[in-house]
């Protein structure tokens, strides 16, 4: 059940979903999309979990969840800040980012 909730949460983050009127429409719009999920790659158990989630997204929703394993999540935070400073508010290189409290605060203040 925990995994199902996470998958539903992931789908709700798509900007496409804000325009969809129902779940079937959300699934139809998300089908075939690629989502770049940046996460710290230093934990074997988390890496296995993210690989599993990626497979589930592909199997159940035809979504290509690409896991970008980072040595330091701050690298993705810097990339987001650089893109935002350059005026790129949509279509950036990071779709989803798994952050800790410090990186969340940094992004919130940006």
TrEMBL record:
Keyword set, alphabetical order: Signal
UniProt key word Signal: yes
Signal peptide range: 1-20
Superkingdom to which the source organism belongs: Bacteria
PANTHER family (UniProt xref): PROTEIN YNJB
Protein name: ABC transporter substrate-binding protein
Lineage: Bacteria, Pseudomonadati, Pseudomonadota, Gammaproteobacteria, Enterobacterales
């Amino acid at each position: 059940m925990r995994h199902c909730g996470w998958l539903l949460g992931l789908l709700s983050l798509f900007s496409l979903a804000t325009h969809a009127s129902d779940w079937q429409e959300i699934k139809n719009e998300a089908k075939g999309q690629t989502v770049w999920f940046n996460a710290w790659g230093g934990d074997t158990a988390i890496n296995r979990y993210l690989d599993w989630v990626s497979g589930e997204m592909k199997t159940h929703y035809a979504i290509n969840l690409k896991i970008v394993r980072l040595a330091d999540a701050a690298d993705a935070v810097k990339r987001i800040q650089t893109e935002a400073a350059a005026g790129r508010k949509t279509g950036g290189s990071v779709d989803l980012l798994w952050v800790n409290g410090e990186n969340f605060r940094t992004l919130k203040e940006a």
